[in-house]
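Thread title: Can someone regenerate the structure for this chain?

I was given the following input by a collaborator and told the matching structure tokens would be attached. They weren't. Posting the sequence so someone can regenerate them.
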Amino acid sequence: MFRSAPGTTSRGRGLLAAASALTTPLLPEDFLALVDPLWSTTSLRGRVVARRRETGRAVSVTIEPGWAWAGHRAGQYVGIGVDVDGVRFTRSYSLTSPEGAEHLTVTVQEVDGGAVSPTLVRDLPIGTIVELEQAAGEFTLPEPLPEKLLFVTAGSGITPVMGMLRTLDRAGTMPDVVLVHGARTPEDTIFRAELAGLAARHPSLRVVLRHSAVSGRLDPTVIDTVVADRADRTVYACGPDGLLDALEGAWDGVVAERFTPPARATEGTGGTVDLGGDVVVEPGQSLLEAGEAAGRLMPSGCRMGICFGCVLPLREGKVRDLRTGEAHGEPGDLVQTCINSACGPARIDLP
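Best answer:
Regenerated them for you:
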């Protein structure tokens, strides 16, 4: 559900009326955005209002969204655009806030060598305005809820499931749930204290924490040992590819959420692509990565070829699919820039 712009019943309406009478050719909405960037009707933005450290490498960032924020379902992700050294990057993060919350929260774990996560974890001042995309993703709970649920997570894979648990807690509808979560050490366990509090508050929730530095990594055999009725439960899993591959290979019906893109089967040929100016795309580099590195404002989403949030029209040339090695494309085709590289010279229109 869309929320009204803050103050639109009094101050906002007055500003809108005054701007309508006094502005030509600028639109009234342009002036509202000058008063408060969150009132923009052409760009969805958010304001950072709080930060909370969860572990030595993870921080929860709370964002007040603009008036056009349509809300989210627990388990979905949101695209967040931030400027890093003068270059705009957009990354998608699972929402950890419950459904219906006034503010949205993402919990980010720093990735070594990452372009965006170090900024979010270490240096994102309160009051920073960020670009937002509407929530997306299919890793959500069905309605009605299954009678028995099993969540299997590891590392930052706990984040979408935390959004689900907070939503169930808020609604007072916690079914029979077992969460098996793996982290390297107790200190690396994101939400450790909150998970303990949820389990204490809901007798129907059992939390099993495993620490790989002590007892090794999670695998299907370990989980079957600690969850005797696993076969009777609907399984949701999120974590490293190795864990998800093992679960899907051992059990039927696993609902999985992956954070990493598919393996690249080819290095591509590379080339120079006109993205509002020439951009050199190295072999094995996606069009999205090359465009961002060159400072272009590139639309993006999941960055894995799933959501189609990065598509742009190809005007000239061809591209190469990094998953299959196939060269393809005709003028007018919509190209997923996150999973395609250059295949010689090409031209792609930016919005």
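Residues 5 and 272 are 43 Å apart (CA to CA).
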